[in-house]
Known about the structure:
It is built from 6 helices and 15 strands. By secondary structure, the protein is α+β, with helices and mostly antiparallel strands.
Amino acid sequence: MSRGGVKMKIFKLQEDPSYRFYNLDAYNVQKYLSSYPYLQDNKNYAICPYCGNPVAILYVANKEHTDASIYARHVTNDVAGFPRINKQKLDHCLLSYNLVPFVPATSPIESISLKSVNIPNLRKAFNSVTGISFSNYTTGEILKNHHNALAFRNVDSYNFYFSLLIDAKRFNLSNRYVWANQIKKAINTKSRYFKLIGDKVVPKQKGIGDLRLEIKEYDFKDGYLPSITFEIYEQINETSSSPLISFKRYCFMYDGLVGEPASTNEYF
Ligand SMILES: [Zn+2]
């Protein structure tokens, strides 16, 4: 894991919720980072959107200060006005080394045992990424059927919820509960064969077709957070509808996925 080589292209502020971040460009530096503690001694600082540690805003040497030449990098010493560096999280930061897709690896960076996984917190992570309510049972089934994804490249105890989703690829939504408003709206207005009763997805006519949540693509790019683009569509016999909705979600560092229940990180 070589630190230093990767130029981060995103940042956030201390007061931002866990899911918010901004592109690192001249406009946003001016807009968000022009007062203390984000500006001090003529230097700009911000927060890493993944690990929450302070970062310094830098410019490629001998280049004009254009958007392309701006980047951020973790600082190695504490900065006044910012939380102290959390070394444990810094060591697990996906933005501190070259990002490679979560694919099968020959040597995993961390050995995560199935028994150590905190199912209720994993379920919360699945829920917050997808907008769908997973039960503890379904969460356990996904974990069991895709446990190989715990050992994918760059996967650790803070991010394996994301590799499990990537490996699982698709989820049947019939009789599941939806809690994200944008998904409820898409089903209510666009679905031909499904409707919501309360928050539960049910077929309009018994036994006709499936409603699916599927991973359309995922993106791993140096300096950015990994992302998944999801689509929800109907499948009737062998025919799939065009997507009712498509949405992109980012991989954030998630606390408490192993061991005792801890904090959550829900959004939408
Ligand atoms: Zn970081």
